[in-house]
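Protocol step 4 of 5: obtain the predicted structure for the target chain.
Materials: sequence only (see below). No template structures provided, no constraints applied. The aim of this step is simply to have a reference model before the mutagenesis design in step 5. Sequence pasted as it appears in the construct record:
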Amino acid sequence: MYGASAPIFVPTDSTPATISNEIGSRQGCSWGSFLYCLALQPVLNQLQQEFPSCFIVAYCDDVQIVGPLADAARALERYGVLLHDILQQELRPDKTTVFAPSYSIAALRAAPHFLPSIIPDEKIHFDGIRVLGCPVGTTDFKVRFATDTASSIATDLATVGLCPSLHVQYILTLKSLQHSITHLLRSVDGGAPAFHRAQTTYDTALLGVVRRLTPLTDSLHPISTSLAFTALRHGGLGLRRWADVADAAFVASYSHCAATLPSHYPSLASAFPPIPSFPTYTTTPLPPAASAAALAFHRLCVVSPTIPALITSATSSTSRHLQHKISERLDQCRQIQLAFDIRARDRA
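Step 4 output (structure tokens):
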């Protein structure tokens, strides 16, 4: 495929060994992933046609089958057969997870077509699952997931502290580690009170980086701390606390979903009303995702009243682009507040 073989490195007790790979795509090759998606698409199309009651979406080989228990179980079984017959691929039970919030283990085992010999009990979840790095399920599950993620990033930030160069510590934190939380905050309402513990864990770890960068001071004045978490273009260190990212990331992600998903899945249109239409829903309860987005949206408006006009004019933006635009407005407001705080301190 590439005109030459590629080495596959295999870890051993001493020097890593290599195996010559002469067929298929190379690990990490985006073209190989694209070709796999093309080969898998007919399987997914046939599966969707055979099980219209199920909602089937996939990202490469990460396939989600959503539907009534009996139909979803049969669809999973059929998916395994199609994989084997068309792609000569085997379904991996150890990588198959079932999310059944309305059932018990006993009820699932008694249900027809549930494949009890294939899916072990530990792969059945009732409170939530991880889908493409995002938590899907109950609020408690999302909170635990966010707390674990924040703790993991805190561990990474502590590990960076072992680097002897403060400049390297700063660059790794600024350009890499602090962005690790963005994907999570685009999928959960991180600004809600339920996520306070995760927020505290993350902010404390990030502040620890700032303290390492200022080793000659016993404590930081609140203004100095604010300056550390101010955007680079406004003279700060460019670090971002949880609250600096949470609402902007979630509202931007929701806005992108509301503009994109209905065109691909019309049945989801009512679940994602566009943000500009929120004021018209004063007497009608919003769907769960929209309700959380509305709260985050109003928190943003408290900081910057120009946010509604920005979102209205950027409905076709990607979540990343819109998040950056929202953050720019928030940064401007925070910079003005910081300037007032500095002036008040100088006059005191």
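Step 4 remarks: The first strand starts at residue 6 and ends at 10. Strands lie at 6-10, 17-21, 55-59, 62-66, 98-99, 124-125, 128-131, 134-137.
Proceed to step 5.
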